[in-house]
């Protein structure tokens, strides 16, 4: 696991402000998380093009297939920029799951994931992200 002092830069991306706020509340007690943004998909691109991209993105999927192509493109941009992506959905959608995983998302989980499990997943993704980043240097 990551050392206690290593901060994980996290961005929360969801089309619904209420979902973003709920995730912020759930995660704010984690001392090693720094939430660098809580935005919709349109605003996410701007934040991920900074000099210091997030380590991990929580990407909420709405379940509407008309947005799926846009979300897949966003996953590709995030991953290409060096951010690990955890896709979160309200319900299992096999097509969406397959497409976001093929685009480079690390995992696809339901939004009702419990907080300790979500934090553990974020930490694992950040650790894996940093290992790969060091290996690429």
Second rung of CATH, namely the architecture: 3-Layer(aba) Sandwich
Low-confidence spans: pLDDT under 50, at least 5 residues? none
Number of helical regions: 5
Query: Class, according to the CATH hierarchy?
Result: Alpha Beta
Beta-strand fraction estimate: 15-25%
**Mean pLDDT metric:** 87
Radius of gyration: 14 Å
State the strand order across the main sheet. Answer: 2-1-3-4-5
Which bin fits the share of residues in helices?
40-55%
SSE layout and pairing:
Elements: E1 8-13, H1 17-27, E2 33-39, H2 41-48, E3 56-61, H3 65-80, E4 84-89, H4 94-103, E5 107-110, H5 115-136
Parallel strand pairs: 1-2, 1-3, 3-4, 4-5
Helix pairs in contact: 2-3, 3-4
Structure overview:
A five-stranded parallel beta sheet has the order 2-1-3-4-5, with helices on both faces. It starts with 7 loop residues before the first strand and ends with a helix. It has helices spanning 17-27, 41-48, 65-80, 94-103, 115-136, and strands at residues 8-13, 33-39, 56-61, 84-89, 107-110. It has one domain (8-122): Response regulator (Rossmann fold). The chain has 137 residues and is an alpha/beta fold.
């Amino acid at each position: 696991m990551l050392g206690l002092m290593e901060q994980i830069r996290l961005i929360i991306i969801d089309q619904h402000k209420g979902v973003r706020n709920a995730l912020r509340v759930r995660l704010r007690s984690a001392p090693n998380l720094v939430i660098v943004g809580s935005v919709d998909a349109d605003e996410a691109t701007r934040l991920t093009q900074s000099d210091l991209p997030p380590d991990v993105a929580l990407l909420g999927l709405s379940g509407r297939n008309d947005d799926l192509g846009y979300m897949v493109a966003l996953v590709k941009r995030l991953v290409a920029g060096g951010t690990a992506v955890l896709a979160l959905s309200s319900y299992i959608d096999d097509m969406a799951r397959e497409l976001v995983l093929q685009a480079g998302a690390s995992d696809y989980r339901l939004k009702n994931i419990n907080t300790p499990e979500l934090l553990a997943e974020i930490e694992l993704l950040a650790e894996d992200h940093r290992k790969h980043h060091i290996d690429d240097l």
